[in-house]
Amino acid sequence: KAGVTQTPRYLIKTRGQQVTLSCSPISGHRSVSWYQQTPGQGLQFLFEYFSETQRNKGNFPGRFSGRQFSNSRSEMNVSTLELGDSALYLCASSFYPVGNEQFFGPGTRLTVL
Amino acid sequence: GESVGLHLPTLSVQEGDNSIINCAYSNSASDYFIWYKQESGKGPQFIIDIRSNMDKRQGQRVTVLLNKTVKHLSLQIAATQPGDSAVYFCAENIEGYSTLTFGKGTMLLVSP
Lengths: 113, 112
Fold this sequence. Notes:
The complex is a heterodimer. By secondary structure, chain A is mostly beta strands. Chain A has no helices and 11 strands. Chain A has strands at 5-7, 10-13, 19-24, 31-38, 42-50, 53-57, 64-68, 74-78, 87-94, 103-104, 108-112. Chain B has strands spanning 10-14, 19-24, 32-38, 45-51, 56-58, 62-67, 72-77, 86-93, 100-102, 106-111. In chain B, strands 1, 3, 4, 8, 9 and 10 form a 6-stranded mixed β-sheet that branches. A 4-stranded antiparallel β-sheet of chain B has the order 2-7-6-5, with no helix packed on it. Chain A binds chain B through residues 4, 31, 33, 35, 37, 39-40, 42-45, 48, 50, 55-56, 58, 88, 90, 92, 97-99, 101-107, 109, and chain B through 2-6, 32, 34, 36, 41-46, 49, 89, 91, 93, 95-105.
């Protein structure tokens, strides 16, 4: 069974631009969560989607948004990029919502210049 | 590889030793706990989980202990191998809530 895939793996953007990251969960998984990982703040929860509905959102500004499609694939978008948005963005999937084993993808490394 | 964190607590052990990684969690209402392993350049990998109605759970070479009284979680790795070198994170969750809260992580270095 294929694991969680994330595209692209690496991305370089400049301040003010926007970016869209994609996550394909493990086949059959309906829950997708997104996390931001930085050396200073560690792993922080961004949002979770289950069956195309956002169930919860972390403490991030409105520039961070996401969505989930009917095939459970998910995208997150960051608008008006800031230097501090440079991070590893991780996607995790599980069959049920959080509270069950989650499987992480390799992440997308975003660098904002 | 990519660094997952600077200034992380580090545990250095010799190959074959038993390792114990500790974690203090923050929310007394948390009832589901997970340990993850993250190698350089990779996403976190699930190791073992435990629910709050248990105080010990064993897997292959790993044991998780939960002390709810002091909000403490530990991961024991038996016969540590060089391939166990990674950053280890504990995470907590409250049933019904979709937020997984991660600890800061501990770097485990295993010398051959």
